[in-house]
Amino acid sequence: MEKEQPRLLCSRLFLKNRLVEVALNRSVLAWKETEKSRRRRSGFSSLSDTAHSQAAQVYEIVAVHEAEDNDTKRKDKRVTGLYPHAFTVAYVKRTAQHQWRCSDVTFRCASQTLCEQWIQVINEQLSLLTNRPKSLLVYINPYGGKRRGKHIYEQKVAPLFRRACISADVIVTERANHARDHLKTEANLDKYDGVVCVGGDGMFSEVLHGLVTRTQADRGVDQSDPDAELVPCDLRIGIIPAGSTDCICFATVGTIDPVTSALHVIVGDSQPMDVCSAHHNDTFLKYSVSLLGYGFYGDVLTDSERKRWLGPARYDLSGAKIFLNHNHYEGTVSFLPAEHNIGNPRDKLLCRSGCHVCLHKHSSKEKQRGMLEEKEASDKGDSGGWSVIHGKFVAINAASMSCACPRSPQGLSPSAHLADGTTDLILVRECSRLDFFKHLLRHTNKDDQFDHPFVEVHRVTKFRFQPRHQQLVSLEDLSETQKKADFSPVCSCQTTCSSDGRAHSSWSCDGEILHHAAIQVSVQCRLIRLFARGIEEQQQQQQQQQQPSCVFEDPCAPRAPQSITHCAD
Ligand SMILES: Nc1ncnc2c1ncn2[C@@H]1O[C@H](COP(=O)(O)OP(=O)(O)OP(=O)(O)O)[C@@H](O)[C@H]1O
């Protein structure tokens, strides 16, 4: 890390009855027990220097303020007499399993001036962090998951936002699609630095649709045009998990924990994300960021929607039923393979914080080349770079992220990337029930789920599916799409592909049913950004937590007790 960074401030202060040396540079606030204090406490020093040092990254400091009475009341009277003034720094501390907590450290100072100086200098550094939101629009689904959305927000999130001086306008939704409609037309988005949804994946989908639709409308882009290049949204989206399915949060943060998510919002993290737009001819259907699944997953969702009264158990029951039905569907899949992408679906390169596959795609040269090639291919028509596969499929899945969740830690496509402009198209051809079971089983362990002769996977930028038999969708079904009601497709031409006599399955689009089997899908590279940073590797987590040496190793640093340096740039 930047050793040459000058110290902004350095003092000897008191922390929990111990004298500590506290130093701040532009990136790190670090503190370590002084040699004298250490020796006095333990008699000899057997621990390494780092064992006594702690640090907080400046960009992970939540707030700094004068210490309140309850921060200091249990302290030794001698210390409080000699060091009567105190300030508290709230900062991000990592605990197990990608969880973050807001930790406080209170330093005592001999003089009010010194105390104020520390608060001022830290605040100056925080004010330089322009990526932090100051004003948020928050939507709470009071009925998501275990109906604890409002409670979670009020008890766990709002106090943290207040502490970080973030103002929030809160809307508790009164009906399904309330948040989406409000974002589309009413919300004054200029007032905000981000939109936060408190709920599950369904609530996130509402906010995604509201924000993307509004952005296109404001910029005059027609989202019903399947070839339109959509304009990325300016506002970032935060997800406070409070649903029964919180897969998007899990895939972008690594845990389902409201406090962790709130802290990612506060520090102003930014995780770009690809969004797939699904069309039927010139009709826009839906956006997807995780899974578009036809066949097995479409059937499971359709069946489970009829069993909503069962709660989350409905997915297991429907899963078992659809597995036993073992349907397959005939049709043609065409896709545009992602060329010049440095990853492939079987390379075992996991998408993690600072992912180099996503960064490579983002480099402007790569982006331009990709766009040019796509244009050339579409100018040439279907044969220009498009691959075409006709067959009978048990499942057709497009995974735009790993789709990992606590039940399937590897996910549907373990090496799929959040922001590389592609989706992993997984084709599971007609096979025996036992073979399909083996394939499904591999979603729960570390074996390669694509290593079967009946499974193929392609990293693509666009794809289409055309069922063999034309499908008629009743008007009633179409109007029900928005309501997530039961689905009873009306087919013009029934065949016996599925055991219940249906020629078509339906698409599951991030947990919602699409009532068209024939769809075309286009990946919109980095269309949105979340208040997240991707899943951190363990090593990255440790690095963030322990970097005090760069502040203490400054040879020109003053050492005298109570000394202060306030370095100019
Ligand atoms: N006030 C409301 N009343 C009824 N439905 C709502 C309300 N607000 C949002 N919704 C809808 O509730 C659905 C489910 O919400 P959410 O994703 O937050 O919870 P969930 O428990 O994870 O959902 P699911 O039941 O689909 O697993 C969303 O599709 C959303 O449109």
UniProtKB/TrEMBL annotation:
It comes from the Eukaryota. One of its GO terms (cellular component) is membrane. InterPro entries: CERK_C (IPR045363), CERK_PH (IPR057465), Diacylglycerol_kinase_cat_dom (IPR001206), Lipid_Phosphate_FormReg (IPR050187). The keyword Coiled coil does not apply. Residues 131-282 form the DAGKc domain. One of its GO terms (molecular function) is ceramide kinase activity. Keywords: Kinase, Transferase. PROSITE patterns: DAGK (PS50146). One of its GO terms (biological process) is ceramide metabolic process. The keyword Cell wall biogenesis/degradation does not apply. This is Ceramide kinase. It comes from Solea senegalensis (Senegalese sole).
